[in-house]
């Protein structure tokens, strides 16, 4: 691993090299049962309790394809503008990994279910088209746990354990064509693509696409070449498991490869591992070619021939896709491209939409989700949607502000209480006695005390300088712990001194 001090700067790299990126994304489908057997796909079960002779590859067991998984894959292909094959079949991909009990993976090779599509993404106000080479269906592997080493990887471990619960879960692989020409934006384009792809798949309801649980995983391919030269040798960073890490892994590999090339070295075609703590990649294994896998047609499964009429029905029933939906919402909310980009970048589209549906205004929903709540999410290191506050609670909070029950300042205190699990905003305001004091009788004494404590300011107001009232209003707000109605206080101050 090269130290950061030996690496060139990012600006230097993009001034001398052109990156070519490619992304292979694996999506675990949310089917009730596995791809070729009836075992449960529920996440979190005790190790090796969701297995049977088929997914363990025991002799004499025969697979049966999951029809729901085939339909979900076709819907993904249609949403990605792919051509759906009229005839295709499964193949055996042969290799030895301890977490693949059959010693081969049932996948697709030269005849995928969906191919030649595209997905448009927005980056810095520009539309970038990412061409899709193929979308194919296969089964997932099991999960290995390496014990006794410092890194959690097999090197240095004293023993390895295997959980086959995940083996056989339907897995869709979405492979892009090489994406040249992104230049300095390559890391952002990679992240934008995976983000948009996740949103598309989530909109279809075929997977929860939770990267932290492994139901969405991304392999990031990258090569560098000098302008006018052929594309370089690519590396493949495996199983990157967050949107932020997709971006970081592209940037890290660009710096590493440039350093190797600058020193006169050659890039190896290999898999690499991304380290969340350092943001760097380390070597895994040399990358096999298709020939090394010894593909051959799966003899135990019949070919698939989706009925074109059925495919047309699936296409007609597709939901509104995220990009179309964002354009509609932007028009409905009456906001600019820049404002909508801020909403998208914060991951707040659904949250704001739900807040509006619960009775909040577009402006108020954006104010809270992009302001106070985004700040708290950043401080906690979580996604905005993971905060312990619902869109309905945000709408209720704003309703209290609009009704004059609380101020924006008090609302921030209420948010803190909601996040701490104290209940809904109205209940918190009531229980803590946070409601704004607007009764003139209760405020008069506080106003008189503020006037008495600031005679010079009071004299200015008597002379017609009403702008000076802010000092007295601030004093009253402090005395009432921010619960006084500022408008009422101002009226009282002016009335007492006029």
TrEMBL record:
Its EC number is 6.3.5.-. GO terms for molecular function: ATP binding; glutaminyl-tRNA synthase (glutamine-hydrolyzing) activity. Signal peptide: none annotated. InterPro entries: Asn/Gln-tRNA_amidoTrfase_suB/E (IPR017959), Asn/Gln-tRNA_Trfase_suB/E_cat (IPR006075), Asn/Gln_amidotransferase (IPR018027), Asn/Gln_tRNA_amidoTrase-B-like (IPR003789), GatB (IPR004413), GatB_Yqey_C_2 (IPR023168), Gln-tRNA_amidoTrfase_suB_CS (IPR017958), Gln_synth/guanido_kin_cat_dom (IPR014746). It catalyses: L-glutamyl-tRNA(Gln) + L-glutamine + ATP + H2O = L-glutaminyl-tRNA(Gln) + L-glutamate + ADP + phosphate + H(+); L-aspartyl-tRNA(Asn) + L-glutamine + ATP + H2O = L-asparaginyl-tRNA(Asn) + L-glutamate + ADP + phosphate + 2 H(+). It comes from the Bacteria. GO terms for biological process: glutaminyl-tRNAGln biosynthesis via transamidation; translation. Keywords: ATP-binding, Ligase, Nucleotide-binding, Protein biosynthesis. Residues 350-497 form the Asn/Gln amidotransferase domain. Allows the formation of correctly charged Asn-tRNA(Asn) or Gln-tRNA(Gln) through the transamidation of misacylated Asp-tRNA(Asn) or Glu-tRNA(Gln) in organisms which lack either or both of asparaginyl-tRNA or glutaminyl-tRNA synthetases. The reaction takes place in the presence of glutamine and ATP through an activated phospho-Asp-tRNA(Asn) or phospho-Glu-tRNA(Gln). PANTHER family: GLUTAMYL-TRNA GLN AMIDOTRANSFERASE SUBUNIT B MITOCHONDRIAL AND PROKARYOTIC PET112-RELATED (PTHR11659), GLUTAMYL-TRNA(GLN) AMIDOTRANSFERASE SUBUNIT B, MITOCHONDRIAL (PTHR11659:SF0). Heterotrimer of A, B and C subunits. Belongs to the GatB/GatE family. GatB subfamily. This is Aspartyl/glutamyl-tRNA(Asn/Gln) amidotransferase subunit B. It comes from Actinorhabdospora filicis. The gene is gatB.
């Amino acid at each position: 691993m090269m130290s950061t001090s030996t690496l060139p700067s990012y600006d230097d790299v993009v001034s001398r090299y052109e990156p070519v990126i490619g992304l292979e994304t694996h999506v675990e489908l949310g089917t009730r049962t596995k791809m070729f057997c009836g075992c449960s796909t529920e996440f979190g079960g005790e190790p090796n309790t969701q297995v049977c002779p088929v997914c363990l590859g025991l002799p004499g067991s025969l697979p049966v394809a999951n029809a729901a998984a085939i339909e979900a894959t076709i819907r993904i292909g249609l949403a990605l503008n792919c051509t759906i094959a009229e005839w295709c079949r499964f193949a055996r991909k042969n290799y030895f990994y301890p977490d693949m009990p059959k010693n081969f993976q049932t996948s697709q090779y030269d005849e995928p279910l969906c191919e030649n599509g595209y997905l448009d993404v927005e980056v810095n106000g520009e539309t970038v088209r990412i061409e899709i080479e193929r979308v194919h269906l296969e089964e997932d592997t099991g999960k290995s746990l390496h014990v006794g080493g410092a890194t959690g990887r097999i090197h240095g471990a004293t023993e390895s354990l295997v959980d086959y619960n995940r083996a056989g879960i339907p897995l869709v692989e979405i492979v892009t064509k090489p994406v040249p020409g992104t230049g300095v934006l390559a890391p952002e384009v990679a992240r934008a693509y995976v983000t948009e792809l996740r949103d598309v798949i989530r909109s279809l309801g075929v997977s929860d696409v939770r990267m932290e649980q492994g139901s969405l995983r991304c392999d990031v391919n990258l090569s560098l070449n000098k302008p006018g030269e052929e594309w370089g040798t690519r590396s493949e960073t495996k199983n990157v498991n967050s949107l932020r890490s997709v971006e970081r892994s592209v940037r890290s590999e660009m710096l590493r490869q440039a350093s190797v090339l600058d020193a006169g070295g050659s890039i190896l075609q290999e898999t690499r591992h991304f380290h969340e703590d350092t943001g760097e990649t380390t070597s895994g294994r040399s990358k096999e070619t298709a020939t090394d896998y010894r593909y051959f047609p799966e003899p135990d499964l019949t070919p698939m021939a989706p009925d074109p009429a059925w495919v047309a029905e699936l296409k007609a029933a597709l939901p509104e896709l995220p990009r179309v939906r964002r354009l509609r919402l932007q028009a409905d909310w009456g906001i600019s491209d820049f404002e909508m980009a801020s909403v998208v970048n914060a991951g707040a589209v659904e949250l704001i939409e739900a807040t509006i549906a619960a009775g909040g205004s577009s402006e108020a929903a954006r104010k809270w989700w992009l302001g106070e709540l985004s700040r708290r999410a950043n401080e906690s290191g979580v996604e905005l949607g993971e905060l312990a506050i619902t869109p309905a609670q945000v709408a209720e909070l704003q309703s209290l502000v609009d009704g004059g029950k609380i101020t924006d300042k008090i609302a921030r205190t209420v948010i803190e209480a909601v996040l701490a699990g104290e209940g809904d905003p109205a209940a918190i305001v009531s229980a803590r006695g946070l409601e704004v004091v607007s009764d003139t009788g209760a405020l008069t004494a506080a106003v008189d005390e503020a006037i008495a404590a600031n005679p010079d300011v009071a004299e200015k107001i008597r002379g017609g300088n009403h702008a000076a009232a802010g000092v007295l209003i601030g004093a009253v707000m402090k005395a009432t712990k921010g619960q006084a109605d500022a408008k009422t206080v101002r009226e009282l101050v002016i009335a007492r001194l006029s």
